[in-house]
Amino acid sequence: MKADIIVDTKGLACPMPIVKARKAITAMKTGQVMEVLSTDKGSLNDFRAWVSQTKNELIAHEEQNGEYRFWVRKL
Amino acid sequence: MDEKSQKTTIVLFSGDYDKAMAAFIIANGAAAYEHEVTMFFTFWGLNTLRKEAAVRTKKGFLERIFGAMMPRGAEKLGLSKLNMAGMGPQMIKHVIRKHKALPLPQLIELAREQGVKLVACTMTMDLLGLQQEELLDGLEYGGVAAYLGDASDGKVNLFI
Question: Which chain A residues are Cβ-neighbours of B114 within 8 angstroms?
Fold first, then answer.
């Protein structure tokens, strides 16, 4: 999936993944897609909750060998 | 922040490194949730906001003793459990680095960057003999009414 911006939070612990994601998404235009990489085991639940609360859209996510990838569209 | 934004408030009463860390992690998370976040510091929680360097102030004897016995700043706080005369904090800081979590001083820095409002309770500052010059710059000062003003609209209000 093509993302407009990639935010790499691999190795960082809570709350850094969502703090970095928020910083990045603030600078984006509506409709753009952000891809977030994370190795934080709580990040699936964190991102689901964060995306719905901030009224954006989680288009897709995947997990491979403990590495999470999230695609978020800014609404 | 727009008017629709939700509010989170946290009272930090405790002066322990671990509890302050939990408070600042939640504050930073809430800020990333686009909440307006207010942290209200009272009693031992005020020590989190002390400057590390000694500040020359005019104080009475008791206030001076209090000032000398309390930790000066976030880096100096002890742990609520397993403090072991200061060994605990060294160990936890090592583990924090290992897991690439943020240590408390950086969590405070990040919270300020994210626009978290830090309010020091003036009544307990008087009790503990802490003066504004001894605390970090750029804080707000208030009492219970200032806190309740924010907490009344808060969806998340915590006492730590």
Answer: 19
Which architecture, in CATH terms, is A5-73? Answer: 2-Layer Sandwich (3.30)
Is B2 domain-assigned? no
Structural domain range at position B131: 7-159
ipTM: 0.82
Domain count along chain B: 1
Per-residue pLDDT of chain B (160 residues; tens, 9 = 90+): 455 689 999 999 999 999 999 999 999 999 999 999 999 999 999 999 999 999 999 999 999 999 999 999 999 999 999 999 999 999 999 999 999 999 999 999 999 999 999 999 999 999 999 999 999 999 999 999 989 999 999 999 999 9
A75 contacts chain B (CB < 8 A): no
Tell me the C-alpha distance between B23 and B107, whole Å: 10
B56: tokens are 């020359």
Nearest CA to B119 out of B100, B139, B138 is that of: B139
**DSSP symbol at B61:** H
Kindly list the distances between the CA atom of residue A7 and the CA atoms of A47, B21, B32, B128, in Å, as whole numbers in the listed order.
13, 25, 15, 44
Inspect the interface and report whether the beta carbons of A22 and B99 lie closer than 8 Å: no
The CATH number of the domain where B99 resides is what?
Answer: 3.40.1260.10
